[in-house]
Amino acid sequence: MIMVGKIFIALIWTIWVITIDGTAEGRTDRAANNITLAEYTPTYSSTYDRVIKRGHLICGTNDEFPGFSQEQFSNEEGARWAGFDVDLCRAVAAAIFGDAYAVEFEIVNGKTRFTYLIDGTIDMLSAATTYTYTRNVYKKLEFMPTTYYDGQGFIVRKTLGVSSAKQMQGARICFSGSGTAAKNIADFMKLHEISYVPIAVPPNEKTKNVYKRGDCDMYGTDRSGLASNRLSFDDPDRHMILPEIISKEPLGPVVRYGDQRWSDIVRWTIYVLFIAEEMGINSKNIDRFENNRDPSIKRFMGELNGKDHPHLGSKLGLGERWSYNIIKQVGNYKEIYERNVGKNTPIGLERGLNKLYIHGGLLYAPPLK
User: Fold this and answer.
1) How far apart are CA 215 and CA 208, in angstroms?
2) Of the candidates 221, 247, 273, which is a domain's last residue?
3) Is there a single domain that holds both residue 336 and residue 209?
């Protein structure tokens, strides 16, 4: 009987783990209503066509991620979305419609972000999402160029008196069932032979809130996320981000497999942000680059192309000033970074790896020709 009981418990545990992992990849229920919509299977140009017919882009993003995506309210402007990930969506809207505000934002979280993309609720996802093998190959999601190179870290209260995650023997560590954080934590602790007490966070709660109320000693997520979360703490200076970086977290927008035209539009919108910075073109000086004698700049401005097309945008069904509109209305990558998460903002992130390759970073775009 004892053996039968152990087998039964093991089966229950296995089912629970599979369920949690499935939720992490967006396979189970839709929000809290257990509604599953039919899977959206795009074909060439179908996403672009429905976006044009609708008259605006629908972009999935977080609503409580200061610096990256946040819905803000003011008496003068009412509700307004702002942040690094938000501006990536606006750049795509500017490329398509010539209007960076032709975009509707759908709030997503770790559970719903892939579900909404798979069933077609959103046209693209821009929510600090890590590019992984499983998400790409198994979930059939197409990741766009990485827009933020990050790594997972840990945050603790300074009163613990530790300076390294390797000193957290026996610590209570919060983790969510959605995302890559839980697996990264388990791998790190196993590698360094550190025993810890896992504190599973319920699906309807945020990990940072469980930590804030003292139910665990530390938690881990992308270091950019930790810096953003820390801003919401009552006394941010009482918390510190530990030095360890325990994973690679390449973050960027995501679309569905199957629609090459749509993925090309989003992909080259991102590359335009890099290319403009490399050329020294920004939202304030772009008009001075009209009729420039440099052929690369003329192509960028929509003034030059080969004999088969009048301008580069025409190959994607975009207007001749698509790249001009992106930079004029949203700015280049440097502008987006510095106004949302740069060192002079409350989040205060150095660019580090998120510099252009010519400055020692990882951002690199193919030629726009």
Assistant:
1) 10
2) 247
3) no
Encoded amino acid at 59, one letter: C
As given in the structure block, the two tokens for residue 7 are 């087998």
Domain containing 147: what range?
Answer: 37-151+249-369
Residue 126: which of 174, 80, 93 has the closest Cα? 93
Comparing C-alpha atoms, which of 92, 91, 117, 93 is closest to residue 106?
117
How far apart, in whole angstroms, are the C-alpha atoms of residue 135 and residue 131? 7
Q: With H, G, I as helix, E, B as strand and everything else as coil, classify residue 217.
A: coil
Residues 25-62 have pLDDT tens digits of 333 445 555 566 788 999 999 999 999 999 999 999 99
Euclidean distance between CA atoms 154 and 189, whole angstroms: 12
Number of structural domains found in the chain: 2
Measured CA to CA, the distance from residue 108 to residue 61 in angstroms comes to 5
132/360 Cα distance (integer angstroms): 24
* Residue 238 CA from chain centroid, whole number: 27
Same domain, residue pair 167 and 254: no
Edge-to-edge strand order for the sheet containing 69-74?
A: 64-65, 69-74, 78-82
**Whose CA is closest to 91, among 311, 277, 237?**
277
- Identify the CA nearest to 182 among candidates 114, 258, 246: 246
- Cα(first)–Cα(last) distance of the chain, in Å? 72
Task: Answer yes or no: is 326 within a domain.
Answer: yes
pLDDT in tens, 281-332: 999 999 999 999 999 999 999 988 755 678 889 989 999 999 999 999 999 9
